[in-house]
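Hey, weird one. I pasted the D-3-phosphoglycerate dehydrogenase sequence into the form twice and got a warning about non-standard characters only the second time. First submission, copied straight from the form history:
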Amino acid sequence: MSIAAAAAAASSISVATNSFKNVTLSSRSPLPSAISVAFPNRGRNTLRRRFVLISCTAGDGSKPTILVAEKLGDAGLKLLEAFANVDCSYNLTPEELNTKISLCDALIVRSGTKVDRAVFESSRGRLKVVGRAGVGIDNVDLSAATEFGCLVVNAPTANTIAAAEHGIALMAAMARNVAQSDASVKAGEWKRNKYVGVSLVGKTLAVLGFGKVGTEVARRAKGLGMRVIAHDPYAPADRAHAIGVDLVSFDEALATADFISLHMPLTPTTSKILNDETFAKMKKGVRIVNVARGGVIDEDALVRALDAGIVAQAALDVFTKEPPAKDSKLVQHERVTVTPHLGASTMEAQEGVAIEIAEAVVGALNGELAATAVNAPMVSAEVLTELKPYVVLAEKLGRLAVQLVAGGSGVKNVKITYASARATDDLDTRLLRAMITKGIIEPISDVYVNLVNADFTAKQRGLRLSEERFLLDGSPESPLETITVQLGNVESKFASSLSESGEVKVEGRVKDGVPHLTKVGSFEVDVTLEGSIILCRQVDQPGMIGTVGSILGESNVNVNFMSVGRIAPRKQAIMAIGVDDQPSKDTLKKIGEIPAVEEFVFLKL
């Protein structure tokens, strides 16, 4: 269904009285003030709406189904079982996974299961969350997940210390030939002279990838008396300097280091980043540790560098293909120490990862924003907390705006304006843009829209969004003063919603943590964005609030807030009425029959 066609079926009702059918207010001056009348909310929560990302509990109350495809700690499984039906099926073939996935709302994997496009296609739209129990997500097709509206979350913190400790353990074991000498003694040998090692103190360690694990490795290496440098194009220099680490270029790191420790994700940019060319730039006798991803090293090139003496030793926990071939020259090399992907394999880390990913998956299925989402607009937990009420405001403004569009109009151009006292670099609007997109598309589309695929869905439908920021004077304590949404080149079913330049325009702000509608077209109003809203254009005269309130009261429709914005006394005004329930058509008809009411519209939130 196209946006233009679907708009006609949107769930809103608009009425214009016969005597004012052709009246428009597209060139009204802004009102100098708004008059507000508050009504008791009868015990309702001030801010009830959840910050919905996805919601997978069926309408009949049945539990969602979560497929756990690789072993997960008991603590995590208990959390999952308290919320959902849990299917623990390990070592599935791709065919078996594709068959099962159509019956599942969420999937949890570690690094051994490939979640490719075929998995998302086989799910037929039911799969809403993929949880990666660990940090790396190179085994999940993120573009396919986004296209199919599936959120991907990981567990980036629980195994950080375990991975860092394993990196340090491998570095020390490699430097002192622990694995080789252990095997020699167990074979009945006693070759002390053969396994003379090197000291760590005073050596230069280059940490390639200065994220969470890389930072913890650096801290521990400093404690061992090593000089630590790091390369990461995204790492802030102040964070590195705070722990005594110098950020350097990639080439400088290679040329300077006695030890190199890899802590980067596997991406097209980092794939085989250590190769014949980069090995040639290294100091002869360098030692390499990899507890990140096997694919970041060209394994054949590493064997050549070992044989040539460029690399003295290597300690590897990860491989391009896992498990590696039994006859792998790299694994069998005498100067290579290997472990079977044990970076996160401590009892504490396993339980921590299980709990972290279980909480993320359950939270996402329960409709909560996930701070560990990897294919949704990413903001820090602190910013996410601060933006929560603005997230609600953004989606509701989108929903209001699109319901004001007349059925024959196609929504193509959306302009979003943020008014804030904060500098551009200090205001991340990606999450807000996604929620406005969701609010505009979802009420008039048969496509399921969430934060993950909002931009993708908008692009598919030819929806062009532009953002503008208006810098205000004053204190930047609050992230935003107002958000304005304008839909261009459309007809409106409520003429008063048109701005001076002819766009459907709504504006809102957050007051005391609660989203408010503050402007419709050129008229200022003030109404909380809860329940639903009735907008009336009327002649400003005594008794209007009481007349409309009485009609709603007689129909047992509770009014939670009312605001009137006017041009001048006894002229035209906009009445915005917040209602908890949807009025019947007869009730709305009675409002439309009031002589002073020129037009009105009912909008569902």
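That's the output from the first submission. The warning seems to come from a hidden character in my clipboard, not from the data itself. Residues 89 and 96 are 10 Å apart (CA to CA).
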